[in-house]
Amino acid sequence: MTIFSATGISASYGRTRILHDVDLPELHDDEVLGLLGPNASGKSTLMRCLTGEKTHHGRIVLDGSDRDEMDVSAWHRRVATMPQTPPNPSVLMPTELMWSTARALDLDFSDRELADRIEDIFNRLGLDEFALSPLHVLSGGKRQLVGLALALLRDPDVLLLDEPTSALDLHWRMVVLDLVRERLTERGGVVIAALHDLDLAARYCDRIVLLEAGQIVASGTPGEVLTPDNLARVYHVETSVSRDEQGQPVVQVIRPIRSGKQVAR
Ligand SMILES: Nc1ncnc2c1ncn2[C@@H]1O[C@H](COP(=O)(O)OP(=O)(O)OP(=O)(O)O)[C@@H](O)[C@H]1O
Protein backbone atom coordinates (compact mmCIF):
# COMPACT_ATOMS: atom_id res chain seq x y z
CA MET A 1 0.00 0.00 0.00
CA THR A 2 1.53 3.29 -1.11
CA ILE A 3 0.67 6.62 0.53
CA PHE A 4 2.36 9.74 -0.78
CA SER A 5 2.03 13.31 0.43
CA ALA A 6 3.67 16.65 -0.27
CA THR A 7 2.77 19.59 1.94
CA GLY A 8 3.90 23.18 2.37
CA ILE A 9 6.09 23.07 -0.74
CA SER A 10 7.78 26.41 -1.46
CA ALA A 11 10.61 26.98 -3.91
CA SER A 12 12.51 29.88 -5.46
CA TYR A 13 14.95 30.56 -8.26
CA GLY A 14 17.37 33.12 -6.84
CA ARG A 15 15.19 35.70 -5.11
CA THR A 16 12.10 34.92 -7.12
CA ARG A 17 9.61 32.79 -5.25
CA ILE A 18 7.93 30.36 -7.66
CA LEU A 19 5.94 27.99 -5.43
CA HIS A 20 3.99 29.32 -2.46
CA ASP A 21 3.21 26.76 0.21
CA VAL A 22 1.65 24.16 -2.08
CA ASP A 23 -0.23 21.28 -0.42
CA LEU A 24 -1.01 18.33 -2.68
CA PRO A 25 -3.83 15.99 -1.69
CA GLU A 26 -2.62 12.80 0.00
CA LEU A 27 -2.45 10.06 -2.64
CA HIS A 28 -3.24 6.40 -2.03
CA ASP A 29 -2.63 3.29 -4.14
CA ASP A 30 -4.07 3.42 -7.67
CA GLU A 31 -4.56 7.18 -7.68
CA VAL A 32 -3.49 9.50 -10.48
CA LEU A 33 -3.07 13.18 -9.68
CA GLY A 34 -2.95 15.65 -12.56
CA LEU A 35 -1.11 18.96 -12.18
CA LEU A 36 -2.65 21.52 -14.48
CA GLY A 37 -1.94 25.19 -15.02
CA PRO A 38 -0.82 27.60 -17.71
CA ASN A 39 2.76 28.10 -18.86
CA ALA A 40 5.06 29.23 -16.04
CA SER A 41 2.53 28.35 -13.31
CA GLY A 42 5.16 26.16 -11.63
CA LYS A 43 4.22 22.61 -12.67
CA SER A 44 7.74 21.54 -13.66
CA THR A 45 9.27 23.29 -10.66
CA LEU A 46 6.89 21.38 -8.41
CA MET A 47 7.77 18.13 -10.18
CA ARG A 48 11.46 18.88 -9.67
CA CYS A 49 10.81 19.47 -5.95
CA LEU A 50 9.02 16.13 -5.73
CA THR A 51 11.92 14.32 -7.41
CA GLY A 52 14.42 16.00 -5.12
CA GLU A 53 16.17 17.74 -8.00
CA LYS A 54 15.19 21.21 -6.74
CA THR A 55 15.79 22.49 -3.22
CA HIS A 56 12.59 23.55 -1.49
CA HIS A 57 10.84 23.93 1.84
CA GLY A 58 8.08 21.57 2.86
CA ARG A 59 7.57 17.86 3.55
CA ILE A 60 7.44 14.95 1.13
CA VAL A 61 6.41 11.72 2.79
CA LEU A 62 6.28 8.22 1.30
CA ASP A 63 4.61 5.52 3.39
CA GLY A 64 5.26 7.42 6.60
CA SER A 65 8.95 8.15 5.85
CA ASP A 66 10.12 11.69 5.27
CA ARG A 67 12.06 11.86 2.03
CA ASP A 68 14.87 13.85 3.66
CA GLU A 69 15.46 10.94 6.02
CA MET A 70 15.31 8.19 3.39
CA ASP A 71 18.32 6.55 1.81
CA VAL A 72 18.75 8.24 -1.60
CA SER A 73 19.13 5.01 -3.59
CA ALA A 74 16.09 3.45 -1.87
CA TRP A 75 14.10 6.55 -2.83
CA HIS A 76 15.20 6.33 -6.46
CA ARG A 77 14.28 2.66 -6.65
CA ARG A 78 10.74 3.45 -5.48
CA VAL A 79 10.20 6.78 -7.20
CA ALA A 80 10.68 7.18 -10.96
CA THR A 81 10.56 10.35 -13.00
CA MET A 82 9.90 10.97 -16.63
CA PRO A 83 11.28 14.47 -17.22
CA GLN A 84 9.75 16.93 -19.68
CA THR A 85 12.79 16.63 -21.96
CA PRO A 86 13.23 13.24 -23.67
CA PRO A 87 16.60 11.44 -23.59
CA ASN A 88 19.23 13.22 -25.72
CA PRO A 89 19.47 12.15 -29.37
CA SER A 90 22.78 10.34 -28.78
CA VAL A 91 24.34 7.26 -30.41
CA LEU A 92 23.07 5.11 -27.54
CA MET A 93 20.36 2.58 -28.31
CA PRO A 94 17.17 2.32 -26.18
CA THR A 95 18.19 -1.19 -25.09
CA GLU A 96 21.59 0.03 -23.88
CA LEU A 97 19.95 2.87 -21.95
CA MET A 98 17.56 0.47 -20.25
CA TRP A 99 20.34 -1.92 -19.20
CA SER A 100 22.64 0.84 -17.96
CA THR A 101 19.78 2.44 -16.00
CA ALA A 102 18.93 -0.92 -14.42
CA ARG A 103 22.58 -1.40 -13.42
CA ALA A 104 22.88 2.15 -12.04
CA LEU A 105 19.77 1.63 -9.91
CA ASP A 106 20.97 -1.81 -8.80
CA LEU A 107 17.52 -3.24 -9.48
CA ASP A 108 16.66 -6.51 -7.89
CA PHE A 109 15.98 -8.46 -11.13
CA SER A 110 17.95 -11.32 -12.68
CA ASP A 111 19.31 -10.75 -16.21
CA ARG A 112 16.54 -12.99 -17.60
CA GLU A 113 13.83 -11.07 -15.71
CA LEU A 114 15.31 -7.78 -16.85
CA ALA A 115 15.48 -8.87 -20.49
CA ASP A 116 11.83 -10.00 -20.33
CA ARG A 117 10.81 -6.77 -18.64
CA ILE A 118 12.54 -4.62 -21.22
CA GLU A 119 10.98 -6.62 -24.04
CA ASP A 120 7.51 -6.30 -22.48
CA ILE A 121 7.81 -2.53 -21.92
CA PHE A 122 9.17 -1.99 -25.46
CA ASN A 123 6.34 -4.06 -26.94
CA ARG A 124 3.69 -2.16 -25.02
CA LEU A 125 5.14 1.19 -26.09
CA GLY A 126 5.68 0.17 -29.72
CA LEU A 127 9.46 0.53 -29.28
CA ASP A 128 10.40 -3.08 -30.09
CA GLU A 129 11.43 -2.29 -33.66
CA PHE A 130 13.55 0.67 -32.44
CA ALA A 131 15.26 -1.14 -29.56
CA LEU A 132 18.57 -1.32 -31.45
CA SER A 133 18.38 2.03 -33.28
CA PRO A 134 20.55 4.89 -32.01
CA LEU A 135 18.46 7.52 -30.24
CA HIS A 136 19.48 10.22 -32.70
CA VAL A 137 17.56 8.52 -35.51
CA LEU A 138 14.34 8.32 -33.45
CA SER A 139 11.64 10.98 -33.65
CA GLY A 140 10.98 13.24 -30.66
CA GLY A 141 7.85 11.23 -29.86
CA LYS A 142 9.71 7.91 -29.88
CA ARG A 143 12.40 9.37 -27.62
CA GLN A 144 9.67 10.54 -25.26
CA LEU A 145 8.41 6.94 -25.17
CA VAL A 146 11.95 5.79 -24.33
CA GLY A 147 11.85 8.25 -21.41
CA LEU A 148 8.68 6.57 -20.17
CA ALA A 149 10.17 3.09 -20.70
CA LEU A 150 13.10 4.11 -18.48
CA ALA A 151 10.74 5.34 -15.77
CA LEU A 152 8.66 2.13 -15.88
CA LEU A 153 11.70 -0.14 -15.74
CA ARG A 154 12.05 -0.05 -11.96
CA ASP A 155 8.34 -0.75 -11.35
CA PRO A 156 8.05 2.36 -9.19
CA ASP A 157 5.63 2.99 -6.32
CA VAL A 158 5.52 6.65 -7.30
CA LEU A 159 5.67 7.67 -10.95
CA LEU A 160 6.27 11.36 -11.66
CA LEU A 161 5.49 12.35 -15.24
CA ASP A 162 6.26 15.86 -16.50
CA GLU A 163 4.14 16.43 -19.60
CA PRO A 164 4.54 12.79 -20.62
CA THR A 165 2.58 13.09 -23.86
CA SER A 166 3.66 16.51 -25.16
CA ALA A 167 5.51 15.08 -28.20
CA LEU A 168 3.03 12.28 -28.91
CA ASP A 169 0.19 12.02 -31.41
CA LEU A 170 -3.38 11.26 -30.30
CA HIS A 171 -2.99 7.49 -30.54
CA TRP A 172 0.18 7.31 -28.45
CA ARG A 173 -1.13 9.78 -25.87
CA MET A 174 -3.90 7.34 -25.06
CA VAL A 175 -1.66 4.26 -25.27
CA VAL A 176 0.77 5.81 -22.76
CA LEU A 177 -1.90 6.85 -20.29
CA ASP A 178 -3.77 3.53 -20.69
CA LEU A 179 -0.51 1.72 -19.92
CA VAL A 180 0.14 3.86 -16.85
CA ARG A 181 -3.42 3.19 -15.62
CA GLU A 182 -3.11 -0.54 -16.33
CA ARG A 183 0.13 -0.69 -14.40
CA LEU A 184 -1.51 0.94 -11.37
CA THR A 185 -4.34 -1.59 -11.48
CA GLU A 186 -1.85 -4.48 -11.78
CA ARG A 187 0.59 -3.49 -9.04
CA GLY A 188 -0.61 -0.35 -7.24
CA GLY A 189 1.37 2.81 -6.61
CA VAL A 190 0.53 6.42 -7.38
CA VAL A 191 1.11 8.72 -10.33
CA ILE A 192 1.55 12.48 -10.49
CA ALA A 193 1.46 13.91 -14.00
CA ALA A 194 1.87 17.51 -15.15
CA LEU A 195 -0.44 17.88 -18.14
CA HIS A 196 -1.62 20.52 -20.59
CA ASP A 197 -4.42 18.53 -22.19
CA LEU A 198 -7.61 19.08 -20.19
CA ASP A 199 -9.52 16.19 -21.75
CA LEU A 200 -6.73 13.72 -21.05
CA ALA A 201 -6.62 15.00 -17.49
CA ALA A 202 -10.38 14.54 -17.13
CA ARG A 203 -10.19 11.05 -18.57
CA TYR A 204 -7.19 9.68 -16.65
CA CYS A 205 -6.87 11.60 -13.38
CA ASP A 206 -8.69 10.80 -10.15
CA ARG A 207 -7.76 14.19 -8.76
CA ILE A 208 -6.59 17.44 -10.26
CA VAL A 209 -4.67 20.34 -8.80
CA LEU A 210 -4.92 23.57 -10.77
CA LEU A 211 -1.95 25.90 -10.32
CA GLU A 212 -1.63 29.56 -11.11
CA ALA A 213 1.53 31.57 -10.35
CA GLY A 214 2.78 28.86 -8.00
CA GLN A 215 -0.40 28.64 -5.92
CA ILE A 216 -3.29 26.20 -5.90
CA VAL A 217 -6.44 27.69 -7.36
CA ALA A 218 -8.56 24.53 -7.21
CA SER A 219 -8.09 20.94 -6.07
CA GLY A 220 -10.52 18.04 -6.32
CA THR A 221 -12.05 15.63 -8.80
CA PRO A 222 -11.94 16.53 -12.51
CA GLY A 223 -15.62 17.51 -12.29
CA GLU A 224 -14.95 19.85 -9.38
CA VAL A 225 -11.86 21.49 -10.88
CA LEU A 226 -12.58 21.71 -14.62
CA THR A 227 -15.32 24.32 -14.44
CA PRO A 228 -15.77 27.27 -16.83
CA ASP A 229 -15.02 29.71 -13.97
CA ASN A 230 -11.75 28.03 -12.97
CA LEU A 231 -10.64 27.69 -16.59
CA ALA A 232 -11.46 31.32 -17.35
CA ARG A 233 -9.54 32.49 -14.32
CA VAL A 234 -6.43 30.44 -14.95
CA TYR A 235 -6.22 29.97 -18.73
CA HIS A 236 -8.13 33.10 -19.82
CA VAL A 237 -10.37 31.13 -22.14
CA GLU A 238 -14.12 30.86 -22.41
CA THR A 239 -15.20 27.21 -22.28
CA SER A 240 -18.27 25.08 -22.32
CA VAL A 241 -18.08 21.97 -20.13
CA SER A 242 -20.36 18.98 -20.77
CA ARG A 243 -20.25 15.42 -19.37
CA ASP A 244 -19.35 12.19 -21.12
CA GLU A 245 -21.08 8.81 -20.55
CA GLN A 246 -18.95 8.20 -17.44
CA GLY A 247 -19.91 11.61 -16.06
CA GLN A 248 -16.43 13.04 -16.65
CA PRO A 249 -16.13 16.63 -17.86
CA VAL A 250 -15.50 17.28 -21.56
CA VAL A 251 -14.10 20.75 -22.14
CA GLN A 252 -14.78 22.67 -25.32
CA VAL A 253 -12.68 25.80 -25.64
CA ILE A 254 -14.72 28.54 -27.28
CA ARG A 255 -12.44 31.57 -27.44
CA PRO A 256 -9.64 33.36 -25.59
CA ILE A 257 -10.53 36.11 -23.15
CA ARG A 258 -8.36 39.22 -23.09
CA SER A 259 -8.51 41.97 -20.47
CA GLY A 260 -11.73 40.53 -19.13
CA LYS A 261 -13.41 40.84 -22.55
CA GLN A 262 -14.18 38.12 -25.05
CA VAL A 263 -12.31 38.36 -28.29
CA ALA A 264 -14.55 38.58 -31.34
CA ARG A 265 -14.33 35.59 -33.65
N1 LIG B 1 16.15 27.17 -13.91
C1 LIG B 1 15.38 28.25 -13.75
N2 LIG B 1 15.92 29.44 -13.37
C2 LIG B 1 15.15 30.52 -13.19
N3 LIG B 1 13.81 30.54 -13.35
C3 LIG B 1 13.23 29.41 -13.73
C4 LIG B 1 13.97 28.20 -13.96
N4 LIG B 1 13.10 27.23 -14.31
C5 LIG B 1 11.88 27.78 -14.32
N5 LIG B 1 11.94 29.08 -13.98
C6 LIG B 1 10.81 30.01 -13.85
O1 LIG B 1 9.89 29.46 -12.93
C7 LIG B 1 8.56 29.73 -13.34
C8 LIG B 1 7.78 28.42 -13.39
O2 LIG B 1 8.33 27.62 -14.44
P1 LIG B 1 7.92 26.11 -14.64
O3 LIG B 1 8.79 25.56 -15.72
O4 LIG B 1 7.91 25.43 -13.33
O5 LIG B 1 6.42 26.29 -15.15
P2 LIG B 1 5.48 25.26 -15.90
O6 LIG B 1 4.12 25.43 -15.30
O7 LIG B 1 6.06 23.90 -15.88
O8 LIG B 1 5.50 25.85 -17.37
P3 LIG B 1 5.26 25.13 -18.81
O9 LIG B 1 3.82 24.72 -18.87
O10 LIG B 1 5.56 26.26 -19.75
O11 LIG B 1 6.22 23.98 -18.92
C9 LIG B 1 8.66 30.46 -14.67
O12 LIG B 1 8.51 31.85 -14.43
C10 LIG B 1 10.05 30.13 -15.17
O13 LIG B 1 10.57 31.19 -15.94
From TrEMBL:
GO function terms (MF aspect): ATP binding; ATP hydrolysis activity
One Pfam family matching this protein: ABC_tran
Keywords of the record: ATP-binding, Nucleotide-binding, Translocase, Transport
Annotated ranges, domain ABC transporter: 4-238
Protein purpose: Part of the ABC transporter complex HmuTUV involved in hemin import. Responsible for energy coupling to the transport system.
Protein name from the UniProt record: Cobalamin ABC transporter ATPase
Naturally occurring in which organism (per UniProt): Thalassospira xianhensis MCCC 1A02616
